[in-house]
Amino acid sequence: MARILNDYPSVALKPEDLDGKIDFVQIFGRRGPVHIEIGSGKAAFLLNQAMTQPEVNFLGIEWARKYYRYAVDRIGRWSLKNVRVIRTDAAHFLTNFVPANSVECFHIYFPDPWPKKRHHKRRFFVPANLEQLLRRLTPAGTIRIATDHAEYFEQIQQVLTTFSGRLEKIEFFPTAGADVGEWVGSNFERKYLKEQRPIYTIAVRKV
Length: 207
Ligand SMILES: C[S@@+](CC[C@H](N)C(=O)[O-])C[C@H]1O[C@@H](n2cnc3c(N)ncnc32)[C@H](O)[C@@H]1O
What we know:
The protein is of the alpha/beta class. It contains seven helices and eight strands.
């Protein structure tokens, strides 16, 4: 039987309540570094990382309603105070609501690869979105990416290369929830590892 999912107003950030650039201090009720996960799915990364780094404020952006509701329920049941989740399109949200120089780290784990060529334009990791990410990163802020899709990884690396004067490559460390042999420990990574797909990772720092 499907689990009943609860809404937790302390976790769910509603797009309709936002009015211009957001104030992270107000949203989290405290100061602190902000990490944003783009496409947070069922929130496995957010859950584990937020428990390990209670001093960090985590925001998950998730478009799909079923994953968003699952994530809110999961974070709420664990009573985590340092995580918020919003259901919206990440590119739109970044451009219109996230202030410049406000985010210490963007986490992008297993972004939809849109494998058909005619759908490539739907991919998140394109130059215009990287420009938005860089503007919103704090000095020395980082972007961490993992994917199972070789061709999309190729594109990601190419896009990063075109911004090479503004970022430098750094080591990608496994996240708090990663088990042995994993990088992220998210639902999609576990599914792909079961299918024996290779996982590609890259991390960069704003210079
Ligand atoms: C392949 S899943 C990965 C989920 C999770 N990161 C994981 O590793 O388990 C990609 C997720 O990104 C979400 N997504 C795709 N495009 C998005 C967008 N423009 N804004 C927010 N979320 C998006 C999808 O709904 C989906 O949940």
